[in-house]
């Protein structure tokens, strides 16, 4: 577990530093994640989440490609119940919330052949996913009283997708830090290696004992993404 946590923090640190120093465009999107193949046999719920990406430079007719990094979060299950705070304080009730989550990190390459107001593209991705289940106790005002990671694992993943960007606004003034903003729609398919994970109903409380019913499969995932991309400038000049 310590190794996986270290890898997660390392990727997050790299992404934040990359974005601050090098990013020439940045995007954010909401997404729906659909488990596929073996993963779908175990997980029936459609995942909901968001993604962030930071690209190294802006594509041009001479260089119609770009590279960067992508960070995503998907919740693929949740459960909630109310319990007495303890056996000695039964008159105080707290909310017990359990979530099943995926945090993924990928190096991404995009090919964007057109530079007009409508920009179709294809992309390739290589990275991994941290899959974990977490339980939190929330008191009044929704503040966290306690939390614990029940189970976690790591899966490598790779894949690709295609999308299209539609220009919403552009700025001709070279003094503007933002040169243009695009609506971004894309579909991605990720092939995930085998991992162990929990799903809804996998944590069973029996006479004060906790039993985990662990599922194991490959972790293929299909996502539909809708968001926006902001372009800040171009290392090669032009737009």
Write structural notes for this entry.
- It is a single chain.
- The protein has a single domain, classed as Porin (Beta Barrel), CATH 2.40.160.20.
- It is mainly beta.
- It starts with a helix and ends in an 8-residue tail after the last strand.
- The relative contact order is 0.20.
- It has two helices and twelve strands.
Q: Strand content of the residues, in percent?
A: over 45%
Q: In terms of per-residue confidence, which ranges show pLDDT below 50 for 5 or more consecutive residues? A: 234-239
User: Roughly how many Å apart are the termini?
Assistant: 45 Å
* Average pLDDT, all residues: 84
Number of domains: 1
Question: Can you count the helices?
Answer: 2
Gyration radius from CA atoms, angstroms: 21 Å
Q: CATH topology, what is it called?
A: Porin
Molecular shape:
elongated
The largest pleated sheet is described as:
8 strands, antiparallel, barrel
Order of helices and strands: HEHEEEEEEEEEEE
Question: What topology emerges from the helices and strands here?
Answer:
Blueprint (H helix, E strand, L loop, with lengths): L1 H20 L3 E11 L2 H5 L4 E9 L9 E20 L8 E19 L6 E21 L5 E27 L9 E13 L1 E4 L5 E4 L2 E4 L2 E4 L2 E11 L8
Antiparallel strand pairs: 1-2, 1-12, 2-3, 3-4, 4-5, 5-6, 6-7, 7-12, 8-11, 9-10
